[in-house]
Every structure is written in structure tokens, then in C-alpha cells.
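Progress note, sequence design subtask.
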């Protein structure tokens, strides 16, 4: 038996409970419609919670253009159409890369605030369709702490969204610990998204940087959080990693070795397995059979969340692959909705 797995009985029991919890929160008729949507790829009552749904408000577009960065093609109307067409009840909105990673300190501080206020306006206008994962000017400790307070206390954000690296430093770098300490105090949900790493932007200019370096950068930041001690030191942060954990499932044997865990006993007192099973993972562009099987070989279904990567991808493709993956109805509903409700209980109100 793989060391990540409990006994088969415990694993199945946990999956069934997750599905039943989602069933109770949603109601029988909507649940049945949701199954029809998955099986037949036809519209049903929206019920999914998309934790990986990008928005590109006007201040962000202006900032990118001013810095010669091509903005993403996005509109509110197209976003709403995607929700309806993919059976998504609520999109957890966050900015796509590069996020608040460019410009000087004052520029980043203002850009984060402008993005967050635009997101909060989207939520206030359509509170059942959108919820905010607020962004931070993460390279500045003081500015990030101030924005955390504003996002949660004033804007009532549901969580935080971060890029995987800032100025060449990953999220688990000890210089970021004051920010992680505050997020831990607030028991925050922190969604992460890869951006172009400082090391590798020009390595293969003939393909998109995100084709390879995006998923790899997700694994780099996960490794930094585990092996630099941040994940264990701040255990009340609920981390979400994009794209089924990047390449982490495929590199596990390089981290999960007795000699490695012995050397990092202080940073990982309960081992790599324990920490990876605490993290959450979205399905965006990591929903094909190989990626799903690799991910579910190391973590339980309870840690998988529905994500689309809109506007770069759409939810129908995600759902079609999830259905083909041989998951039970309970597992599908847990991924579509139930697991997210544990992280964001206010969405079920």
C-alpha cells in the first residue's frame, strides 16, 4: 500500500462523507441536475464552485499596458457566460499572471488596492456569482499586512490570491514569514498561481513560458513552503495550489525519502506525506487522466477543488475529463462543490 493512503475502507468512507456533505448542502434536485450536466455535457442548474477563475479589471489592464504587458482578453459578460455554460454557481475571482509583481513599491501597493476594490465591486453587484480572493503587494511586508487587514475587514474577501514567486523569492522564503504569520492568525485560505520565474523566462521562447515553467514554479513554491518550514510553522493557512499541484506528484520520490526527511525533521516534523495531504489542489489544466491519477495516488479526493483557469480554459473541458476519470458521483460532487464549501462555508448560506 502506498504510504499516502489510509486503508481502503477509511479512504472510501471519507469520500462518501464528503459527497454526502455536498449533497446535503446543495439539495437533491440540484445534485441530480449536476450529475446530468457531468454525464451528458448539457447545461444543468449551476452548482460548481470554481476556485481558479480570473478577472481582469480596468485598473489592471491599464497597469499592464503602461508596462508593455499584453492584457488578457476578458469581460464581465464573457465571465458570466462561462459560469452559466459550465454549470458554475460561483467563481472565486483572482487576477491572472503576472499579478502584482511589477513596478515599484508604491505602484504595487496602489495596483493591489485597485484590483481588490474592483473585485469587491463585482462581488457586491453579484454576490452569488462571484467571491473575492484578494491580491497582495507581497514583496512589501508592511504593505501586505495593511492590505490583508483591508481585504478581510473592509472588503470582506473570502481569501487571498498570491503568485508563486516575487522578485525571485518563493512563498516559503523566511523573509515572508511576517506575512504568513498574519495569514495564519486569520486562518486564511490562500490560493496560489504560477507566474514567470525570475530564472527562466527566456529559456524556450518558441513556446509559452507557462507550458513548462508554470507548473514547475508551483512545485518550487510548494517545496519552499515545506522545506523552509513555513507550512509546518503556520499550519492554519489553507493553501490551494493550481494545476493539480504542478509537477509535484511526478517528483515525489525525490522529496519523500528517509534521508531527506531526516535532514529536514525540524522543517517537516510530520513528514512530506502529511504536509501534501493537508494542501488543496485545483483541477485547472491538470484534469486529464494522467494528471488526475498521479494526484489522487498521493492525496485523498477531499483535497481536490474544481478549477477552470478561465479565460484561458473552460469548465466544460474540465468536467468532461473528470467524468471520464472514473470518479464516483460522490467524488464528483465533492470536487465540484463540497470540498470548497469546507474552505468557504459562507458560500453555502
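Output:
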Amino acid at each position: 500500500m502506498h504510504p499516502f493512503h489510509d486503508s481502503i475502507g477509511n479512504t472510501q468512507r471519507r469520500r462518501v462523507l464528503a459527497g454526502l456533505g455536498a449533497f446535503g448542502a446543495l439539495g437533491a434536485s440540484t445534485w441530480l441536475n449536476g450529475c446530468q450536466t457531468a454525464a451528458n455535457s448539457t447545461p444543468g442548474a449551476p452548482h460548481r464552485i470554481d476556485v481558479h477563475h480570473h478577472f481582469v479589471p480596468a485598473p489592471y489592464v491599464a497597469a499592464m499596458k503602461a508596462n508593455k504587458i499584453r492584457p488578457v482578453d476578458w469581460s464581465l459578460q464573457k465571465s458570466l457566460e462561462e459560469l452559466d455554460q459550465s454549470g458554475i454557481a460561483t467563481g472565486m475571482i483572482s487576477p491572472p499572471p503576472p499579478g502584482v509583481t511589477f513596478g515599484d513599491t508604491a505602484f504595487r501597493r496602489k495596483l493591489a488596492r485597485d484590483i481588490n476594490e474592483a473585485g469587491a465591486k463585482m462581488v457586491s453587484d453579484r454576490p452569488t456569482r462571484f467571491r473575492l480572493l484578494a491580491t497582495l503587494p507581497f514583496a512589501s511586508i508592511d504593505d501586505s499586512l495593511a492590505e490583508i487587514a483591508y481585504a478581510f475587514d473592509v472588503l470582506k474577501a473570502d481569501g487571498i490570491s498570491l503568485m508563486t514567486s516575487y522578485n525571485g523569492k518563493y512563498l516559503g522564503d523566511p523573509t515572508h514569514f511576517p506575512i504568513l504569520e498574519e495569514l495564519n492568525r486569520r486562518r486564511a485560505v490562500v490560493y496560489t498561481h504560477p507566474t514567470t520565474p525570475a530564472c527562466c523566462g527566456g529559456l524556450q521562447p518558441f513556446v509559452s513560458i507557462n507550458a513548462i515553467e508554470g507548473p514547475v514554479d508551483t512545485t518550487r513554491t510548494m517545496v519552499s513552503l515545506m522545506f523552509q518550514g513555513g507550512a509546518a510553522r503556520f499550519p492554519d493557512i489553507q493553501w490551494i495550489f493550481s494545476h493539480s499541484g504542478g509537477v509535484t506528484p511526478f517528483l515525489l520520490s525525490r522529496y519523500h525519502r528517509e534521508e531527506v526527511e531526516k535532514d529536514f525533521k525540524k522543517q517537516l516534523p510530520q513528514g512530506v506525506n502529511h504536509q501534501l495531504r493537508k494542501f488543496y489542489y485545483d483541477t485547472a489544466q491538470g484534469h486529464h487522466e494522467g494528471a488526475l491519477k498521479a494526484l489522487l495516488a498521493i492525496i485523498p479526493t477531499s483535497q481536490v477543488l474544481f478549477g477552470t483557469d478561465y479565460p484561458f480554459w473552460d469548465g466544460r473541458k474540465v468536467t468532461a475529463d473528470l467524468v471520464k476519470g472514473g470518479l464516483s458521483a460522490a467524488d464528483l460532487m465533492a470536487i465540484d462543490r463540497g470540498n470548497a464549501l469546507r474552505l468557504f462555508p459562507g458560500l453555502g448560506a
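The first strand starts at residue 48 and ends at 54. Work on this subtask will continue into the next period as scheduled.
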